[in-house]
UniProtKB/TrEMBL annotation:
Pfam families on file: 3HCDH (PF00725), 3HCDH_N (PF02737)
Any single GO BP term: fatty acid beta-oxidation
Tagged with keyword Transmembrane helix: yes
Protein name per the record: 3-hydroxybutyryl-CoA dehydrogenase
Organism of derivation: Roseovarius gahaiensis
3-hydroxyacyl-CoA dehydrogenase NAD binding domain segment(s): 6-185
Residues spanning the membrane: 7-29
Residues annotated as domain 3-hydroxyacyl-CoA dehydrogenase C-terminal: 188-282, 418-489
Keyword Membrane attributed: yes
UniProt keyword list: Membrane, Oxidoreductase, Transmembrane, Transmembrane helix
GO MF entry, a single one: NAD+ binding
Amino acid sequence: MTRIRKVAVCGAGGTMGAGIALVAVRGGFETIRFDRSSEALSRSRGAAEKFLKKSVDRGRMSPEDSDATLARLQDSTDLADLADCDLVIEAIYENLEVKQALFKELNTICKPQTIFASNTSTLSITQIASGCGREDRVVGMHFCLPAELMKLIEMSRGLNTSDETFREAWAWTEAAGQLPVETQDKPGFILNALLVPFNNDVIRAIEAGLATAEDIDIAIKSGLGYKMGPCTLLDLIGLDTQVLLGEAFYPITLDRRASVPPLLRRMVAAGRLGNKSGQGLLTGQSRQRADTAPDFSIVASGDSRSFPSGDTIVDRATERADVTMHLGGGYAPDPSKTAVLVELDTECLGVHTGEDMGREGSNAVGFARYRNGNDAPSNLIELVRQPATDAAALDAARAIFEVAGFDVVVCADQPGRIVDRLVRPKYNDALRFLDEGLATAEDMDKTCKLGLGYPDGPIERVTRGGLARHFDVTSALYAMTGQPGYAPARRAVVASAHQAKAAVCPDPVKG
């Protein structure tokens, strides 16, 4: 139950504010959509009417319910109209001074019981509330885009937020049909604290020549099961928006991964903002999958992480072939072959072939089938090329795995390839946030699954894959790059040490 009956949304002429207003009015609440621009309100009302019509057409709402919903929706460009609201949610420009000024003005207009909520994604709730005159009645209420479709809300308290205010705001989100999770008043809360640095890492990987944007999306979707690749998401939200997020996030955290990548600034300066401008990270180019492949033989030097015992790839091998596939860490150069495929673990291909200051390359092609710890291997094959890798060798490797039904991407011989390079720092962040009390493991996982459509959350996934394995992978990446984001998180260090101790001194109770 909630005592809140009338809600206002400031900034309702924008995409987020318009979506929040739909959540409120669809939940049965009388709702005022406020914006300084009457034109923006008019546009967003048209979008709201279109959304409700689609709901009727799809059988999710009756025509009568749609009419009643629209009847509860009022538009205003005058803050005085918000005087008798029980809850005011701001979704205006992400600027501390602007948000503070709005709440100070609203404090002179609204009744003393009115709760102020901020939809900020990066700023401190305590700072936003500071000086407004009712710091105890201000709460963080971060919706996910598109708000009218996404159920998740990140709820946070400022230092002066009263327990009563937080309970009332929480009860309202549930009454509105949403799913709240509690987080702390820290930069980015849960969602953006994980997402902003991750997206910046993606852009830096492209700038470093690791892989194309298209292949990065394929790798993340196939290897991790994400519904949307990071480059698709960045083009959708707008590269200019990612710049604003980085500019807001970095000064607060001083985390290099949160700082705006140079490539991102250049693309925004060039007007390549993503979907809104028609040009972004994705080029729209795709490569046709191979339908024929050369024969290959297998040389096994040990256990294979990519193709465990009994895998059907073994059945495709022949005794003599133009391509040799080395499994289990072995490698022997053979210039007579079209290609020599080398299975990799955490090492670079150059460990096997040697390097020559950017001139290295031959018919050797590295590969790894992505696998989360001891989970079953995924359907993703990451091929590793060197600067002068033979094109025919790369084509042969791609064809062998594509004909076998795998999703295949190509990347440079850089630490972590695509998936581990990008996802391991995120796991480190999640484990660190758990130590710092940002949120519970369950709420972090819930946030990523509901807010981003992930099949599993970061804590769930890294734990299932094994914290000791995470330690091994991140230690290798940190040793090769020296970048702090790869330094193993405390829980991974402890898990690795515990595993090593157990191997030397077994539990006497278990024998």
